[in-house]
User: Fold these one by one.
Assistant:
Number 1:
Amino acid sequence: MSSIELSKRQEHILVIVEEFGPITGEQIAEKLNLSRAALRPDLAILTMSGLLGARPRVGYYRTGKTPSDVIAGVLGNIKVAQLQSQPIAVKNTCTVYDAIVTMFTEDVGTLIVVSENGYLEGVVSRKDMLKATLSGTNLNSLPVNVSMTRMPNIVVTYPNESILVAAQKLLSHQVDSLPVVNVLDVEGSEKYQVIGRFTKTNITRLFVQLVSK
Ligand code: ADP
């Protein structure tokens, strides 16, 4: 992803403004052999995205921003809290059998495992559950915390973190989801209170929303 998808005409407008700016809408229209009204939607897109600036009685000018600056600006300003899903958690005393049932009933691929007090202890994925199943052990007597990935190896994100940083964590650690946490100081030790779940689906949904607005 290196640039915004601009139409041929929008790219042409950028070239004209680059060369002749500041230039009025009327003058751009003339150079393109179009009416001012026909250009209005393109000029609106180019100014709203920050690629062009506009001053009354002066005209349009290039802001110096590139299309990829604009994308990074939009995505970099969105915080995890704006996209996160509800956390689906089970207690560390839960059995593997019950964890699998919860995955089906809650329709999630990753469960967050919490302590009696609700603090983050671990994460179990679908493959963790498959592995436990292959072991041949009675799933009703196998506690989920035997199969989970545990703290301090859990990769987390924070409500105020940029979704770009969170997305990079999903990719670099090759996981499907991150617990969203608030960091608490509980009698001198650091605890993670789980307040959400950030997943690849959240990012996919954002992409669809961005173009369907
Ligand atoms: P799956 O194993 O179903 O493909 P993941 O790719 O998310 O799902 O999980 C891969 C492994 O990473 C699993 O063993 C899982 O316990 C672990 N894991 C999942 N999410 C995290 C996380 N946020 N931090 C650390 N480990 C994780």
Number 2:
Amino acid sequence: MRHFYSLNEFSSEQIGEFVNRALAFKENPYSEVLDHRQIALLFLNQSLRTRCSFEVATRELGGDVSTLDAETLFALETEFGKRMDGASAEHVKEAIGVFSRYFSALGLRSFARGEDQQEDLLDKTFTTFLEHAKIPVFNMESALYHPCQALADLVTIKELFQDFQGRKVTITWANHPRALPMAVTNSALLAMTKMGMHVTLAHPEKFELQEGIMNMAGDFAGESGGSVEVVHDRLEAAADADVVYAKSWGSLLRYDDPAAEQDLRDSLKDWVVDSEMMSRTRRAYFMHCLPVRRNVVVNDDVIDSNRSVVLQEAENRLHAQKAILEWIFS
Ligand code: CP
């Protein structure tokens, strides 16, 4: 049984093979690899791209799909040994047991809740599903990782540059009215360092990623010939970049003092990708996973320019996820 949790568990050669399979599916979209299998997509959080791209991918691979969201299900309990006399009416253990009786695989989206750092660090909801599933579970964005997005981003970079080794990517924090999860940034950073890219991570002080993620990125860069550095000046970070990859995330301060975290973010409204930042680059492409807040995260003239590849990234979700579904059942 093959779960798909993060790209970290794969070698760079295996990831390269996923990228090649995704590009092959882009050329030839249809296959019968799912052979009438039933796939469940469970969204505990909102989605446009992940939901639509997995629905289309499943159907184009000869399977069928049921999409479920938190609003239409009983509230799920993830604690064990608890007297369930509160809001939660169904335990995740029974829920995944039932899914396992009807479906051949389950996709799960379970964002970080941003309340308990330990719970988010352990990716508790996702790993509880994994532990009790009798069918493959694939990650449609958990508290820690968004591997489908990272794979689609690699597919896009391969299309743009034909190779990964030695390319410079600036992953830049951007302002946002809400303290968003770190999963997209974690997965992008780890995938890019694994593939030998030089990553400059730009963020204001107090917006550090978790130490374990940074250590892993350093290890991956050491093995691949890539590099990772952290810079607190957004314009300096953009120098000579081939790609500017923008993402917002909340400070770890959110777990101890949410009001102070909000005040800090509100004071950083100049962290927007603008034409001045792009002018420091080597005519970089602009990437973002979407959804994006225009003129908060990125200015109109950047996202509307011919160097913006955000829709190419979104399309590549479809092709990348076909490669993942094919791997799960091969
Ligand atoms: N990028 C991404 O995962 O988009 P959705 O949240 O719309 O699925």
Number 3:
Amino acid sequence: MAFDRIARRGLMLVLSSPSGAGKTTISRLLLERDPALSMSVSTTTRPMRPGEEDGRDYHFVDPTEFNLMINRQEFLEHAKVFGNYYGTPRSAVEGALSRGSDVIFDIDWQGAQQLSQMAGGDLVRVFILPPSTEELDRRLHTRAQDSDDVVAARMAKAADEMSHWAEYDFIVINEDVEKSVAQVQAILTAERSRRERQVGLSEFVKRLQEGY
Ligand code: 5GP
């Protein structure tokens, strides 16, 4: 048995941040560069934005369907964010983890808290902060896909969202996207090396000791 085939528990990487801190870009680059990662595609009741695709960015549903999914216990967690509902579909995540894939979750602090309660040690929580208020402001405005009202609401929410930073395991200040991606990759490498995640270790060491 080669050391790179030691059975390992899948890890759930939660990335949270206030809107405009650069989380979406960071998660896209992580996914492009690491084939062992997959993204949890959430279900939402919010309207689709230009450039978004159903099934890739979100599963877009109406509130009635969302409620049915809650009742059928199809979500690992769900929360109301900016007046819309968002939820993490259970079966896709369980499928990815059982295939040995690590899963990224782009969810807010409410989702992170709910997942912490149920997934405990499988969770690695990373909070991304913008480097300054000016930069956050600039990024929220250049996004320009939402109406002024929505941008204003997000600005107001950013302070609230950031107040949850201390509930996370790691904090990344996103001044430079490449540096931030490297930082999250380093976190992943370290977390994957944790003894308790490498469930095949005792078998591997036994073989080393017995010489076969
Ligand atoms: P947006 O509408 O800009 O795509 O996302 C708004 C917020 O909802 C972001 O903070 C994002 O992390 C959060 N969010 C997206 N999907 C989920 C989800 O499935 N669960 C929770 N709790 N939050 C989510």
Number 4:
Amino acid sequence: MLLLSQVSKSYGNTRVLAPTDLQVPAGETLVLIGPSGCGKSTLLRLIIGLIKSDSGSITFAGTILTSENIFQIRQRTGYVIQEGGLFPHLTVRDNVVVMARHLQRNATWINSRFTELAELVRLPQELMHRFPAELSGGQRQRVSLMRALMLDPELLLLDEPLGALDPMIRYELQQELNGIFSQLKKTVVMVTHDIAEAAYFGHSLVLIRDGHVVQAGSFKELTLSPAEPFVERFISAQREPMERLTKALK
Ligand code: ADP
């Protein structure tokens, strides 16, 4: 479904992504993890064509991305940026349907798609005419997701989609999202800094450090056969404090 071959990116003399190969089969979720600044968001921006790679190619459903076809490909991709990225001056409804209107989709289709998505992400009707500032963080994330799903994209790119949420809401939305992905059979590339979230969603995980892929594989593979000590350190940095605490309470 999505194939990156030797894709790299530098800003000036600083290389933020070394030549990178990635593959995401249709219907699967690939999770990008790694320390802040390692290049995760850059990878998503390259895939959606917001920035151009210095080398290599990105193939989407058999088509190599070019500056000529990127706009069309973007319509087949849903993108949720950190903090949701909703337009503050548009209501919930207008935020969700803005692209469909721009593409002059039929009004009846827009209405029924909107209603279907509101049900899917469980967003109450009474919120539809509010502005983003009048919503909770969890509600904003749901609206961002609705907007990303509006044109029924084959591919979803999610950059810390649950990042700003408190743990209880985060847990709830994780479960709902996972249901949505498998129900709609979406191909997903997700960025998170939370290893538990990565393990929960990811058919495969790609751990990046300083613009290099350190290891790609399932959570089990990364845990049981770490490619280098950094993999172990990265995973245990998040798991050990919790395990220590749980042991101390026993
Ligand atoms: P992550 O998502 O893993 O936190 P990013 O992909 O956002 O990291 O950034 C990777 C690196 O690229 C960082 O060092 C960041 O400072 C740098 N970077 C990102 N965008 C730009 C830019 N437009 N100009 C220069 N450096 C950038």
